Amino acid sequence: MSAETTSKAPSGHEIIAGFVKMLDGSPGVYRMLDAQARVLYVGKARNLKARVSSYARPKGHSGRILRMISETSTMMFLTTKTETEALLLEQNLIKQLKPKYNVLLRDDKSFPSILVTDHTFPMIKRHRGAKKEKGHYYGPFASASAVSRSLAQLQRVFLLRNCSDNDFETRTRPCLQYQIKRCSGPCVGKISEAEYLENVRDAERYLSGKSTGLQAKLAVEMQAASDELAFEKAAAIRDRIKALTNLQGAQGINPRATPEADVIALHLEGGQACVQVFFIRANQSWGNRDFYPRVGSDEIEASEVLEAFIGQFYDSKEPARQLLVSHPLENTELLAEALSEKAGRKVEVLLPQRGEKAELVESALRNARESLARKMAESAAQGKLLKGLAEAFGLSGPPQRIEVYDNSHISGAHAVGAMIVAGPDGFMKNHYRKFNIKGDDITPGDDFGMMKEVLTRRFKRLLKEDPSRKEGLWPDLLLIDGGIGQVSAVRAILDKLEITDVPMVGVAKGTDRDAGKEEFYRTGQRPFALRHNDPVLYFVQRLRDEAHRFAIGTHRAKRSKAIGATPLDDVPGVGATRKRALLQHFGSAKAVSRAALADLKAVDGISGAIAETIYDYFHENG
Fold this sequence. Notes:
Strand 1 and strand 2 form a beta hairpin. The protein has helices spanning 12-20, 48-56, 63-71, 83-97, 144-158, 165-170, 176-179, 193-207, 214-227, 231-250, 302-313, 332-343, 355-393, 447-465, 484-496, 535-563, 576-586, 589-594, 597-601, 608-620, and strands at residues 28-33, 39-45, 74-79, 113-117, 124-127, 135-138, 261-269, 272-281, 284-291, 322-325, 348-350, 402-410, 413-423, 426-427, 433-436, 477-481, 504-508, 519-521. The protein is α+β, with helices and mostly antiparallel strands.
């Protein structure tokens, strides 16, 4: 009898131990990868050898870390000059790679701000994105609605214009904003340049937190106007004082000893996390936002979550001069150094224990607890709906990813397809997709043809990007807007691509096309309906309505862009700014196409070379 020798695959600890022998004490970033070369975890270290060797020990780890080690098949390393550089690189890689075992910030949109433009009569408006336009920026505000509220109040107080430069320059009569006392009418000479600029300076003083003497100054002006018997002017100043008082009262929290800070508070419960961020600028609260980073385990420490959140949050945002945090961090000084380096000025990370700053943190912490409680309640309700959906449609289990498709067009023109995604946490808006219908062989208005194109493109891409179906991108359920015809068309597409295991349901209005009488269609089965008051029916209606909303919004945006398109869009070297300058100078794209070379060179911002390019384009293609 012969003995059979079997070789045991090395464990994660043994694999990591092998890498330790090749490392030195340099600072850097390490990556753990599984057998399919997917990144499991990204970490940074002051001393790579010491940090990685801790994973080689089989004991002393939490369950989460033990699972990560057991899945590790290989590692990658990048050394850096300093630990600060390693920290910045770590956060960049986490955002880019989205590793399974890292804390991950899922909502990372930019925040809006208020812009006072660089103009003879400056405009005040909302701004989001890169700060390319000349002017003074004030922010961040927590949301667009917070900016809108502040803008509305600021216009009541300071009477600054919010119209575009083109409207301002072409207007001959005061607009409605002037009539309702939201603007001082600089476009038609209702206020002098000096007076208007004084109002602008007052607005900027307020936005900078230097408005202490503003009401006193206005009171003096009101009394002077009254003494001169200019009662209408005095009444207008009185209204501005009243509006300013209301604006100051509407700000809510107005800390006296904290001119500028971001207040960051974390609450952990049941393997979920909520981080509340309050923005304090110019001794005023400019709103707050809640975030729900992915933590993946209830064993994780608050310090790790908070530190990871701060690193990723400020990767593309400017930090305040002080960050007030709710929990102690392991690398406070390192984090402050990294943020200071990025901001180009000193940034402090503080854990306040008493006084006004501690009260601000406690307020943010209370909001974090309440927000997470609401989120968990909503998730529980969503879980029940997904379970009910699985029972109604005969699925093997509650779907984790539902994709809903819809089309929008007007007689075939500007046709678009839209896909929305929903799951256990509700609508997953960062997964929404829009499709410009490209098919030249599609008859205008052919919904079947449009749906075929959208689904074909969607699933061909899925087969290419995630053939093993391990990235969580494949749907557990498709909802199609339509009846048996649409379902049959989509089934034919999936069969052609050899995809046979994705459940699909067509949602069609009933005979009277009334909401609540929807009929559901599945391949090879009779159509059926749910009872009128079934929560699952309401849930499907919400999904379909969201897809319809997204499709119509995408279609309108495409149509608006087409309406605003001109032949100038195709001229090399002519972007939005030059296009605007040309249209303002000549009045229309047609006039630009007919202009002489000398006239083109006379336009502000159009160089001789660009003028020749424009001239040649229209005369060679004319």
